[in-house]
Amino acid sequence: NAGVTQTPKFRVLKTGQSMTLLCAQDMNHEYMYWYRQDPGMGLRLIHYSVGEGTTAKGEVPDGYNVSRLKKQNFLLGLESAAPSQTSVYFCASSRDALLETQYFGPGTRLLVL
Amino acid sequence: GENVEQHPSTLSVQEGDSAVIKCTYSDSASNYFPWYKQELGKRPQLIIDIRSNVGEKKDQRIAVTLNKTAKHFSLHITETQPEDSAVYFCAASKGGSYIPTFGRGTSLIVHP
């Protein structure tokens, strides 16, 4: 099993450009999450999904959109990138949210100029 | 909602010493408390967790204690080694909630 994978690993964008980050898991997990990690801020939840076709906002959703068309994939979109979105993005999944471990992807480092 | 405070933000110890990281939470309904370790440039990975029906759990050099009355839980690492150097995150969640709340992390530095 590959676990949780993310593409791309690193990306540089110019302000105003758009991009999509892809998260894939092969563990048949129901729940998937997108976090951003900034120095001194820990892990902040952007959006999450409790199953195929569902999405919900987390703590810092502004400027991001998500989709979960297939159970194994969770996409994070930036429609118009801003320098404040420079961060490391982690995807995570869990079997269910009832007392279960989160498994994280390797992260995507995004730099917005 | 839940609020998790984690202290200290940085902890520097000599190899062989013990290290303790403490987290407090606000929601008395929280009942699952995992700890994640994140090495530099890597992903967070679970190292130990505890559920609210137990007070302590050990795994070799790592232990976690939970005080439900005071609403705090702690990570204890004994006989620290340089490879323990990393950022450690605590989290709290409750059954039926889809969202674990993370602390801001503790950077542990173990000096050889």
Strand-helix topology:
The complex is a heterodimer of chains A (113) and B (112).
Chain A: E1 4-7, E2 10-13, E3 19-25, E4 31-38, E5 42-49, E6 56-57, E7 65-67, E8 73-78, E9 87-94, E10 103-104, E11 108-112
Parallel strand pairs in A: 2-11
Antiparallel strand pairs in A: 1-3, 3-8, 4-5, 4-9, 5-6, 7-8, 9-10, 9-11
Chain B: E1 4-7, E2 10-14, E3 19-25, E4 32-38, E5 45-51, E6 56-59, E7 62-67, E8 72-77, E9 86-92, E10 101-102, E11 106-111
Parallel strand pairs in B: 2-11
Antiparallel strand pairs in B: 1-3, 3-8, 4-5, 4-9, 6-7, 7-8, 9-10, 9-11
Structure description:
The complex is a heterodimer of chains A (113) and B (112). Chain A is mainly β and 113 residues long. In chain A, strands 2, 4, 5, 6, 9, 10 and 11 form a seven-stranded mixed sheet that branches. The mean pLDDT of chain A is 94. Chain B has 112 residues and is mainly β. In chain B, the strands form two sheets. In chain B, strands 2, 4, 5, 9, 10 and 11 form a six-stranded mixed sheet that branches. Chain B has a five-stranded antiparallel sheet with strand order 1-3-8-7-6, with no helix packed on it. In chain B, strand 9 and strand 10 form a beta hairpin. Chain B is globular. At the A-B interface, strand 5 of A face strand 4 and strand 5 of B.
